[in-house]
């Protein structure tokens, strides 16, 4: 049975979507069957893997308008599939608030797909709103990308409080699968301090691989392909390959 991981950080621009795409791609290249789920109405993951956001996607799936087989698309990477998102998902957030079982819509949809995939990776919006809560309820583990700056530490504290609330009520089996650093600049003392403080507190929950700032990582999404197909030799690609290997080992 496959494992479901959700990428969460309420702060935007921390590399959350980039991480979901590239970790998913490297897991797929390692022989794992991987499903990416774009659960953000901005649909950056959808365009980042070259999927068609005009076709039925995650909104249609959770609302019961289409079945899973009708919304899953192939990508340019073998073994890597995606359920796209569109602006319609913003309407779903309003609908979910009005439902008593609002936190279970995504879970019900993805549980039926567990046996078909080794990994299901959910990319959530940069907030702790209803869509992100649905992602946390549906997942087995949380993957937290953390930018190496001061405000990231404040945001992490709030996120951990939210995770604890979910664990106490809606999803007692939810675990922090790992924290990893993104956009790291080894030249700055602040970046080094953030890594040191977080690692000292969370210890083995912090992945060893650190993702550096790399312009090639920023360019790849505009071509609709992961970094492994855009520039497999750049430092960003090598870093995400290493991080995916860590995720694979923890997911077994």
TrEMBL record:
<dbReference type="InterPro" id="IPR050678">
    <property type="entry name" value="DNA_Partitioning_ATPase"/>
</dbReference>
<feature type="domain" description="AAA">
    <location>
        <begin position="3"/>
        <end position="176"/>
    </location>
</feature>
<dbReference type="InterPro" id="IPR027417">
    <property type="entry name" value="P-loop_NTPase"/>
</dbReference>
<protein>
    <submittedName>
        <fullName>Cobyrinic acid ac-diamide synthase</fullName>
    </submittedName>
</protein>
<dbReference type="Pfam" id="PF13614">
    <property type="entry name" value="AAA_31"/>
</dbReference>
<dbReference type="InterPro" id="IPR025669">
    <property type="entry name" value="AAA_dom"/>
</dbReference>
């Amino acid at each position: 049975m496959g494992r479901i991981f959700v990428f969460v950080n309420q702060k935007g621009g921390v590399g959350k979507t980039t991480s979901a795409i590239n970790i998913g791609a490297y897991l797929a290249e390692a022989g794992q069957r991987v499903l990416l789920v774009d659960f953000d109405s901005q649909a950056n993951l959808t365009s980042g893997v070259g999927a068609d956001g005009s076709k039925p996607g995650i909104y249609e799936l959770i609302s019961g308008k289409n079945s899973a087989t009708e919304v899953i698309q192939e990508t340019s990477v073998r073994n890597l599939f995606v359920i796209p998102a569109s602006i319609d998902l913003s309407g779903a957030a309003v609908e979910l608030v009005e439902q008593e079982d609002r936190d279970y819509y995504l879970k019900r949809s993805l549980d039926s797909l567990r046996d078909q995939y080794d990994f299901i990776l959910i990319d959530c919006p940069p907030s702790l709103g209803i869509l992100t809560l649905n992602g946390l309820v549906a997942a087995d583990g949380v993957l937290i990308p953390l930018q190496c700056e001061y405000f990231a530490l404040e945001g992490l504290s709030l996120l951990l409080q939210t995770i604890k609330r979910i664990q106490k009520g809606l999803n007692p089996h939810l675990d922090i699968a790992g924290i990893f650093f993104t956009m790291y600049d080894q030249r700055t003392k602040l970046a080094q301090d953030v890594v040191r403080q977080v690692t000292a507190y969370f210890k083995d929950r912090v992945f060893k691989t650190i993702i550096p700032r790399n312009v090639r990582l920023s360019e790849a999404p505009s071509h609709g392909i992961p970094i492994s197909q855009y520039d497999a030799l750049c430092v960003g690609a090598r870093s995400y390959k290493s991080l995916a290997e860590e995720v694979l080992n923890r997911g077994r």
